[in-house]
Structures are given as structure tokens and as C-alpha cells.
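Internal tracking record. Fields below are filled automatically when a chain is submitted to the structure queue. Please do not edit lines marked as system-generated. If the sequence contains nonstandard residues, flag them in the REMARKS field before resubmitting.
Queue: standard
Priority: normal
Entity type: single polypeptide chain
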Amino acid sequence: MKIVVLDGYTLNPGDLNWNQIKTLGDIIIYDRTDSADIISRIGDAEVVLTNKTPIRKETMKACPNIKLISVLATGYDVIDIEAAKQLGIAVCNVPAYGTYSVAQFAISLLLEICYHVGYHDNAVKEGRWENSADWCFWDKPLLELYGKTMGIIGYGRIGQTTGRIARALGMKIIANDKHENPTLKDVEYVSFDDLCSRADVIVLHCSLTKENQQFIDKKAIAKMKKNAIIINNARGQLINEKDLADALNEGRIYAAGIDVVSKEPIEKDNPLLKAKNCYITPHMSWGSVEARKRIMDMTYENIQGYLNDKTVNRIV
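SYSTEM-GENERATED OUTPUT FOLLOWS
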């Protein structure tokens, strides 16, 4: 069996290995694949592994030997799911691999906004502490989270994990999710509008759908508190970036922590790059070695399950 990995570098830049998956067939691993090369690289492969390289209907038709597409991520919007259904191609993903890493990173962005750790680390190394007239210093506002309200949009595995961490910091948790879980007693489910108006911190942990593209826009932001903080390490397309940048620059909300943007890698004219109090990281919250190892393990299980006629993490 021939297996092709279209964009393996981000999953394994050298600190992991493909040995387990190699036991399942002949594997060809590409670090990255340009759109012009997708069809030729897949060729007659039966199994295709992709993270962010899109596989559309025309690719599936041009490569009729494809039997399984296994996405090296939880989100599978890079795959034309309807086309896969029509053509009888199985599609798998890797759910829950990054629950702890992504939740941890959301809190990390929030704590950076609260204490400006990176800024003050640089200040110390530039000699500002040793030259201080006092035994301590800071020149940016320091914020305490205790007693504040976190509103989480998308209260699945990651949202609940972020909520548990925030609760340990003394925060109250409210959530908005189209699938409310009545067994969860430590969260208050609220409408989207109520969440926007009540939350001191708004965290996006929802999937990207046609309905929620750019739903954090000037209309939603207008409902938020002036001291509100927005955290997004879900999908960049959830936010209207110009509206968010304008709100930050005009002081209509306090800050934002962003690990994802609408087009990646980020473009130099992205308005968030020059926005006040906007902390941007390069889509790294998923990338702990532990999380990436889980992707490797679960991908092996996906392929093995397919070969054994078992349904494992199947989308289609």
C-alpha cells in the first residue's frame, strides 16, 4: 500500500519519527506541497495524509486510487467532504490530540496580557531593573483574574479544559455552545449576546463553519465591555480582523491574544500587526511534542482501523 504525506514538516520537524506508520505501507513524505504539485505527488497512492494542504474534488477525481484521507489535525475544512462522500473516499481526523496544549496556550496568552512577561523579561535584560530607583518596577498595567468572568465560545473538550484552568484561577465560567451539555454543573450556558456583554475575557474554542465566519465583528464587539480581552487560538476566520484592530486602536476593548489569523502565514498588511495591545503568536498552540506525538499515534490507528474495516475517527 502506498501512503503519501503532503505536508509532514510541521508535524515532525525532526523531533519525532514516522516509524510506526511506515509499518503499514510504502510511505513518501513531503515537507510541504504547493497546490500545483498536489495531484502529481498523490499519484496512485491509496492513503493520503495532510494537515493544511487542501484536497478538493478535482484532486480526488484526478487520483482515483485514493481510498483514505487522514487529516493530521482535528479540523478538516481543507477536505471537500461532500466530494469524498460522492466518490466513496473515507476521511478521518485526529480529535482531542491537542486538548491540553491548546487550552494551556489559551491561558498562556491571557496571562501574558495580564503580566507582560516577555516585555518585562526584555526590560530586565536591557538593564532597566538594575538601574531602577526602587527594588521593583513595571510600566504596564498588571491585571488579576480572580473574580472575573471568562466567556468561552465552543464548550467542547478544549473549552471545558480551559474552563477548569480558569476556574482554578478564581474565574467564573459562562459558555455559549449550540450543543449544551446538561450534565455540566459548573458552567452557566448563555446566549452569544449575553456572553459578549458579561464576559471580562472571551475565549474562542469553536469550530469554523459557514455560519460563524467573522462573527466577532464590530457588531459583536460593540456589545463587549471596554476592558474585555479576546483570546483566539481556534480559527483566524472567526474574527473580522479589521473590526478587531479598529476596536483595539480606539480603546473599545482592552486587548487580544491571537494565535491564528485569516490567512497563514500572516501577511504584512494584516491590520492586527499594528493594533494596540494585540499579542500575536504564529499558530503554535497545537505544537507541543506531546500533542504531535498523539497525532502520529492516532493517525497510525486511523490507517490501521481502515485496513481492518473498523471505523476509527471517521468523518466520512
